[in-house]
Amino acid sequence: MPAFETRQKIMFQHCDPAGIVFYPRYVEMFNAVVERWFEQGLELSFAELVMERGKGVPTAHLEVAFKAPSRLGEVLDLSLVVTKLGASSVTCAIEARCGDEMRIGGTVTLVHIDGARMKSEPWPGDLRTKIENYLI
Q1: Cα-atom radius of gyration of the chain, to the nearest Å?
Q2: Do the beta carbons of residue 56 and residue 116 sit within 8 Å?
Q3: CA torsion, points 122, 124, 129, 133, in degrees to nearest 10?
Q4: For residue 100, what pLDDT is reported?
């Protein structure tokens, strides 16, 4: 199955005074990849998911492995694949590369919730089908 792919230019806002990505910014980039995946890959924006449907997908688990630093002005190629799909959860593997060099990799587990009750609930059938397109 195909990976969802996107790019991120390393900007000043991502960096520490040495011009290297400050590590929590990678977590923000992971979140941005997930949000882009929902909007572009799954055709459901977070605005529609949260504001119109009253649902959410909070992060339940996050693991990150730093491989090499990224610097101001570089462009990262980020990819996302689904490694596990549960009744109400999904685990995604995310990698960021600059050229052939792996910079960071990790996994994020999201849980589909009803926003009003703040309780997990199964993925809607249409959304689950789209998520399955990225399952490896």
Answers
A1: 15
A2: no
A3: -70
A4: 96
Phi, psi (5° rounding) for residue 35? -65, -40
**What's the DSSP call for residue 122?**
P
Q: How far apart are the first and last CA of the chain?
A: 6
The length of the chain, given as a count of residues: 136
90 contacts 82 by C-beta, under 8 angstroms: yes
* Side-chain half-sphere CA neighbours of 59 within 13 A: 13
Q: Mind listing the pLDDT tens digit for each residue in 50-91? A: 999 999 999 999 999 999 999 999 999 999 999 999 999 999
The three-point CA angle 87-82-128 to 5° equals 40
The DSSP bridge partners found for residue 105 are 65, 95
Distance separating alpha carbons of residues 44 and 29, to the nearest angstrom: 19
